[in-house]
Amino acid sequence: MNPDNSRRASPRSHPRLWPAVAGPALLLALSSAASAESALANVYARQGVDMGTMEGFPNPPAMVRDRQSRPAPHATSLNGKWNTIIDPYDVGYVDYRGVSQDALARPTRGFALDRRQQDKSELVEYNFDTSPTLTVPGDWNSQNDRLLYYEGALWYRRRFDAPKSAPGNRLFVHFGAANYEADVYLNGWRLGRHVGGFTPFAYEITGLAKEKDNSLVVRVNNRRRPEGVPAMNTDWWNYGGLTRDVLLVQTPGTFIAQYHVGLKAGTRDRIEATVQLDGPRKQQKITVTLAGLGLKAEARTDASGVARIEFPAAQIPLWSPERPALHDVVLSSETDKIADRIGFRTIETRGTDILLNDKPVFLRGICIHEENPMRGGRAYSVEDARMLLGWAKELNANFVRLAHYPHNEHMARVADELGLMVWEEIPVYWAIQWENADTLHLAQAQLTELIARDQNRASVVVWSVANETPITPERTRFLKTLVDTARSLDGSRLISAAMEVHGDKHNPDLRIVDDPFGEFTDLVSFNQYIGWYDGLPDKTARISWSIKYPKPVVISEFGADALQGWHADALTRFSEEYQEDLYRKTIAMLRKIPAWRGVTPWILADFRSPRRVLPNVQDGWNRKGLIGENGTRKKAFAVLKAFYDEVEQRAVRGK
Ligand code: GCU
After folding, report:
1. What's CA 217's distance to the chain center, in Å?
2. How far is the CA of 150 from the centre of ligand 1 (A)?
């Protein structure tokens, strides 16, 4: 997806690179390598991309699906060792006056050119070949102690030969994510800029890639910025880099670029599918097949390449945590064929109940950061997902809150398999520039990219648009716009955010939840830290609640820091006993909330945070995990598990 990630990108957020009309013409006039630039212009023209904003390819996720078109393999990994240059002063990007060449489709200087000295007298003051390497996927902070706290630009370079390709096929370079801003260049051509650290993006390089020895250069910059999403202040580590897989993806000339398959709204026995083709042959026959269920349906795409299909699916085994049924779905057109494994379920609220497949459900949850504590870096692999979600299953959880940004795609897919419902969130966190239109576009784009990526995951039941944001009219307007965006893209899931609680000056033991934003959400979810930031655990016993909205209440955070292995009495902060005691007493307090329908304590495992500086206790880690950085369970783990076992038993008995 695109630099500021939405087709509505306002020129203000990007130095206007090229008046759209003049773009291709100008390009042709300027450069010599006619074939490459015409390829570039064609690529942009074909995608209707506005040169001014250098947008990338809309909705890359469908691109990397299991494609059964020929030649196989359709995806080639570019993971592995990449040469890198740390560039805190942006010498590879701007001249000594600080001027960049963003306006040029083909920069004439800078690291993007990946130059090599041709003769002994030539002045080239960098050399990727002899520069250190970093592993991709992976953040740079945990790979090299000198980079642990590094925030700034870092250049990656990877050389590759183009995969064998059938005539008419197209080629894309696909990134699972890059934190925070990525400028991508191929053979010296600027492909575009993606902003936002946690969602996929891709660029078409058909005709731009040479058969041999292509130079792919990516400038990744994780500098925090007040207009960013997130902005300057987070309680997590600002891991930078190419944090997820990088792939070369081949597709047929016209391919299935987007699809959604799910139950028709309001039914449990009708399937609805939408398919979007991309390429010259927009009008084709589309077939949706669920061979395992003996279901097959056909339709034709319209002039814009879209087909909508609806068909009966009686008695289809539904997905639930108890029985995470997934079905093989094959979508084929006349030129393309892809496969996916999809579960079917309904999720809704009715009064203060949450209904999964029409049955009331209690969300036995836990919050998770996208980090592998043992490795101390960003999690990115299917193995990382299995470890983290396996721990959640061990808690007897049926729900996880992936905080505070879109995690890698493996998480939702493994949750589909393991039977865990999922809350996904975009990093509209604490203080954001609520009145900055570009910031809003950026947040909308991250939400759009997340929904595009995970809309076919049965496990995903909640889209969350924010965490702990101040109650101001500008903020509420901002968040309401995000709710509208989410509902317009996907009306089949619950929408929420982690809101806050406030006190009452007349009654010190009353806690009030009346955030005006609660009017627009399906759940009343809020973070509360009574017993940690607000008094001692005993305080929980005398707290009463006033919750404005008659909706299901989901406690999106509570918790306490505990250094794993530190044992003392229950009043000693940072001891396991304090955390254990807080869990017991908080659960007892929450039982008194009549509409309590779910909880995701903060947090599954200790995680790195630059805000946590207490020596010999925190040392750069938030210690609110139920599992220490070495994987050892703390005493509170058993308290929460016992509660979830009890809740599960009660549900089984239908209570
Ligand atoms: C906040 C916040 C988390 C943070 C946690 C804490 O509520 O949402 O991101 O880590 O509290 O203070 O530990």
Report:
1. 23
2. 23
